[in-house]
Amino acid sequence: MPINVPKLLPARNILEKENIFLMDDERAVSQDIRPLNIVILNLMPQKEKTETQLLRLLGNTALQVNVTLLYTSSYESKHVSRSHLEQFYSTYNRIKHRRYDGMIITGAPIEHFPFEKVHYWPELTEIMEWSKTHVTSTLHICWGAQAALYYHYGINKYELPEKIAGIFSHGVSDPTVKLVQGFDEEFLAPHSRNTDVSQEEIEADERLDLLSVSPEAGAFIIMSKDQKNIMVTGHLEYDSYTLQEEYLRDQKNGLNPKLPKHYFPEDNPDLKPVNRWRSHAHLLFSNWLNYYVYQQTPYLWD
């Protein structure tokens, strides 16, 4: 899927070197097709890294995607330049009149705060409410998944005795569900979080389907029965070295982190991590775009 991204977006250089299919406005307007319009609400502090990770996965199927990057106007990240936000991002107030085929709400390293204590919680809830009528399907990641479960379904998060960090094994409850079609019976995925949600509460909610669980890391992929909301509690989008970078950051900050589980070869942080989840990351995003966005969205919005 060629992604239409600005020529000067820093992620573009990285993705071009990886041979990801990109295009700009000039080429996009010459194609007589209806592109998918995807909005990404990027809540992560290091926005450029998250842009690269998500755009890489959106660029792996056969349709054209136009991407709008969004940041919260009620809270400005300290880890990205103002010029980057002004050049490549928009705010909710500028785009709320539009309709989108798909939306991604990322994670955020604010799990210790109750949802209502998060600076941009009122703005986020307004966006999630807006998504009910203006977005065909929304994919929520990690803290974004917990926020969606809380706002839409009343399922709260709870603090863990220690952080879940590492690469964990998962199973699939029903391989005929299109979101997990093609998944192995056992597959790996990264997790990195200090809070969790109750598997029992999810299973008891008639509005939700629990599609994938890890014996060590808990509920992983949850989908609403109307297919509008997909919640992924881990980070399939992570690069090979993201968990290593987080581990070293926490060490530097004096947090005395435990070694991410099942991540470094021989549990030796001096050895290079091996990416064992990339194919399922591409498969999840491809299935979401095909079956829950492209196949469901109207050709022309009302």
From TrEMBL:
Compartment(s) of residence: Cytoplasm
Keyword Cytoplasm: yes
Enzyme class: transferase
Keywords in alphabetical order: Acyltransferase, Amino-acid biosynthesis, Cytoplasm, Methionine biosynthesis, Transferase
Residues at the site labelled Important for acyl-CoA specificity: 111
Reactions this protein catalyses: L-homoserine + acetyl-CoA = O-acetyl-L-homoserine + CoA
HAMAP family in UniProt: MetA_acyltransf
Protein task: Transfers an acetyl group from acetyl-CoA to L-homoserine, forming acetyl-L-homoserine.
Stated family: Belongs to the MetA family.
Protein name in the entry: Homoserine O-acetyltransferase
Species per Swiss-Prot/TrEMBL record: Pullulanibacillus pueri
